[in-house]
Each structure stands twice: as C-alpha cells, then as structure tokens.
C-alpha cells in the first residue's frame, strides 16, 4: 500500500540520470563498477541523460579520475571515517539520502556481496523495486524503460523485467557480463561533494576486525586466468593438480557444482548459474562435462581450454582448444611445460 501511494504521488519526470554505485575496497575500485560505468554510458547516451558515479568511502576523492576515465560525467562524493569499511547502516542511509535528494532515473550496482546487501535495502527505503542478478541490460523500445534481463525458474527462462511505476529503476548486475571499458584519462567531470548524514547512533554494528579468507586463488571475478576442476578429477586429493597448475600460471581456482557438492572445494569457488560468473582471458575446464548451468557462468571467457577424456563431452563445443585425454596425465604434462616458460 505504501509503495502504491508513493507511486501515485511520484512525478517520474523529475527522475533523471543513470547512476553507478562505485564499489571500492581499501581504495581500489572493483572491476564490476568499471564494467557498469561502460554499460551505464551506453544506457545514458541512449536515454539522452547524464551518467554519474556514486563514490562513498574514507579519503577516496582521488578515485574520481578513474570514474571519469571510465565514462562518468559526474561523481557524487560522500566521505567520512564511518565509511572506512562497508557498513550496511552507513551506506544504506547515505545512498538513500542521495537518491531522495538528487532523484536518478536508473541505478546500477554490482551483484557482489556488498551490492546484494545494499541494493534491496535502499530500494525498499525509497519505495521502488530491484531486479537482482541481471545478466543483460537494454532499453525497451516501446516504453523507453530499462529492460533488465535475468535467469528465472532455475535458469530455464531468461526473464526481462521493466519497472514502470516506480523510480529509480534499480538492479544488481553480475560481474563480468559486460566488458570493462577502455579508460580515457583525458576526461574529467564535476565532483559533487555531499555531507554525510550518518550519526554514530545510526550504526548498529561494530567492526571488530577483518579476516581475509579469500586469497588470489578464489578471486574468480577479477582473475585473468582460471583453472577449474570438475567431477572428472575423481577425488579431492587430485584437486591439488588443479591448484598446482593454477599456481604455476598465477591463476584462480574454480570448480563445477559437482566438485563443490562433493565437498572437494568450498562454494566460493563454484562457477556457473548458481555460482560465480567469470570472464577471464583463459579458462581451463578440467574434467568438466560442460552442462548448461556451468556454461552460464564461464561462456564469456576469451579462450576456453578443455581437458576431458570423452571426445563427445559438450564442453568441447564451447572450447577454443580441446585436449582429449585423462586429466591425471594431461595436467602434470602442462605443469611441467608451463614451468619451463
Ligand atoms: P559431470 O557432468 O559428471 O562431468 C564430469 C566430466 O569429467 C565428464 O565429461 C567426464 O567425461 C570427464 N572425466 C571423467 N574422468 C575424467 C578423467 N580422468 N580425465 C578427463 N576427464 C574425465 N553446475 C555448475 O558447474 N555450476 C553451477 O552453478 C550449477 N548450477 C546449477 C543450477 C541448477 C538449478 C541445476 C539443476 C544444476 C546446476 N549445476 C551447476 C549442475 C550441472 O547441471 C552439472 O550437474 C554439473 O555442472 C556437472 O559437473 P561436472 O561437469 O564436474 O560433472
């Protein structure tokens, strides 16, 4: 009822501009934010509107030049010690305040842990909807609204969702579904500094410490090379071969759901529809059959190298290079050869 009343009272023509929420960790902008700036630029140009980056953090102003280089016209900057680490309360209050003050038409966020935490809360506070986990974006020709596409019903259909009645139109987008744009550091733009409205009593959680559980080996979304293993690795001990090959190549380690379900690797290594979407330069699929749900997470890789003892395995249909053979023989041979380089 509250949302309906808000919608009826809402003058949608007041909402303008495409925003990208810039996710930064320890002063580094995550790749997904650059990817969304590239896509946001395309949407903003089609809609004839401006593109802005929303930058919240402590001492992060120097990142604005990167945001302009990736295509933004403006940066809304909110700084303060309360933004030192991501905090649900501080960031929700701040992004909600920015939306209520400046009224964007569209907001794009990464479907990351932080984006998935922040997006729905903010959408609820401003009385709009949110399309989560999108894998494509477009503009609906008839309405001019953003067409958000995401898998639905266990990946059996791709649903395209419009948000006709509320503003802003909000969505989270999976990392690596869009290419990172070429940056142009000759570009600059306007920085709009906004005072933080967060009061100490608004923050209901206290950060006691940060435990780094994820090393480079599980940073799949940002990896340039990924070595993934599946059920064809046959037993958990054999996964050391995947790790060794990854180590030699400076790659991250991925796994199929079958390997994760068997307990051979933790879930944060899973690639696919219910795992991570990745887009490395090189993806090694070792003992992975190539089920549609696995391909959904890795098919935008630049080069796919498949190793499988079954010459008819579906993975070979998407592979650029295929090696028909036993992983227990092929992977050690690759390790030996790559070590020589
Ligand atoms: P298998 O399909 O069993 O394939 C093993 C392969 O290894 C075979 O091709 C075999 O020829 C080969 N092999 C065996 N021994 C050797 C050897 N010694 N040397 C070389 N090759 C060998 N799957 C995902 O991966 N990610 C997801 O996110 C995901 N989400 C899903 C969501 C839903 C709703 C559903 C229904 C399924 C999902 N799945 C997902 C599961 C998916 O359908 C497959 O079951 C899974 O990907 C199979 O994993 P696999 O390729 O490792 O195993």
TrEMBL record:
GO terms assigned for molecular function: electron transfer activity; flavin adenine dinucleotide binding; iron-sulfur cluster binding; metal ion binding
Record-linked Pfam families: ETF, ETF_alpha, Fer4_10
Binding site for FAD: 231, 256-257, 270-274, 287-294, 308
Ranges annotated as spanning the membrane: none
Stored InterPro entries: 4Fe4S_Fe-S-bd, 4Fe4S_Fe_S_CS, DHS-like_NAD/FAD-binding_dom, ETF_a/b_N, ETF_a/FixB, ETF_alpha_N, ETF_asu_C, Rossmann-like_a/b/a_fold
Cofactor(s) annotated in UniProt: FAD
One Gene Ontology term from the biological process aspect of the record: fatty acid beta-oxidation using acyl-CoA dehydrogenase
Cofactor note: Binds 1 FAD per dimer.
UniProt entry keywords in alphabetical sequence: FAD, Flavoprotein, Iron, Iron-sulfur, Metal-binding
Family affiliation: Belongs to the ETF alpha-subunit/FixB family.
Designated name of the protein: Acryloyl-CoA reductase electron transfer subunit beta
